[in-house]
Amino acid sequence: MIFREMRLRKQELSRQKVADILHKGTSGVLALLGDNDYPYAVPISYVYDDGKIYFHSAKNGHKIDAIQRTAKASFCVIDKDLVVPEEYTTYFRSVIAFGKIRVIEDDREKRAAIEKLAIKYAPEDTAANRDDAISREWKPLCMLEMAIDHITGKEAIGLVKEKEKLKEILSVYPQVKAAYTGIYAEIFSKDASKGNGLKALSAHLGIEKEEIACIGDGENDSFMFEESGLKIAMGNAEEMLKQRADYVTSSNRHDGAAEAIEKYIL
């Protein structure tokens, strides 16, 4: 299946930033083929997990009728939308996914999907409370799974120019370094980093590099990786960090740090 390439490639977000936006977002707009072939776009909560997007729904209604008509759909999440009056525009950052939706019929799959959604929106709730809530709503509950065929992310040219301007400004200050997340920049002395801090601490405690394990998810954690014997990247980590890691654990939404500690430390 062929999808259109993004025309303004300079504004395209990396796959990792796209995933970060989907994980962080709290709602989006699901677009389906509605009645009389009119587009039907509905705001909806969701959870993104393992390359798929899950939604909850009633068992009957406009959404279900549209999905039965055709499984093809698109889903959009807006991460940033800053109005810039002097430019008559907004500085936006967004993701749009294209794929096919199915109604989850298997009870085990349905239960797993609603638990992912419940944990996202109430992460501090107890398992007992979560189970009670799911049980109460189980009978009328319908869960939908969207398998993604194509996904892109884009940010306003104003945000691109802001980052380029910052890089240009910092280039004349060799005494500082910067780590970019795509959302903000961390600026610090070239002599200050997690790596240097770890190196100083290990020297003070008399710990060899081979005895050190580090877990990270961001670009600034790459400095720490240089001073550790075992490099562990979170499942939601920047792609460059995953490529340098000895082991990639689960994401922060799935207790990845605990998983790595149990496997390699305890």
Written description of the protein model:
33% of the residues lie in helices and 32% in strands. It is α+β, with helices and mostly antiparallel strands. Strands 2-1-5-6-7-4-3 form a 7-stranded antiparallel sheet, sandwiched between helices. The longest helix is centred in the middle third of the chain and has 15 residues, at 107-121. It is flat.
Task: Summarize the topology.
Layout: H1 15-24, E1 28-33, E2 39-44, E3 47-49, E4 52-58, H2 62-69, E5 72-84, E6 89-103, H3 107-121, H4 127-137, E7 141-155, H5 157-170, E8 176-180, E9 185-189, H6 194-205, E10 213-216, H7 222-225, E11 230-233, H8 239-244, E12 247-248, H9 256-264
Parallel strand pairs: 10-11, 11-12
Antiparallel strand pairs: 1-2, 1-5, 3-4, 4-7, 5-6, 6-7, 8-9
Give a nutshell description of this structure.
The protein has nine helices and twelve strands.
Q: Which features characterize this protein?
A:
three-stranded parallel β-sheet; alpha+beta; 9 helices; 266 residues; seven-stranded antiparallel β-sheet
Assembly classification: single chain
Q: Helix coverage percent of residues?
A: 25-40%
Number of helices: 9
Main pleated sheet: 7 strands, antiparallel
Q: How far apart are the first and last residues' alpha carbons, in Å?
A: 47 Å
Could you give the order of strands across the largest sheet? Answer: 2-1-5-6-7-4-3
User: What is the C-alpha radius of gyration, as a whole number of Å?
Assistant: 22 Å
Q: Report the mean per-residue pLDDT as an integer.
A: 88
Q: What structural category arises from helix and sheet content? A: alpha+beta
Order of helices and strands: HEEEEHEEHHEHEEHEHEHEH
DSSP E strands, number = 12
The rough form would be described as flat
* Share of β-strand residues: 25-35%
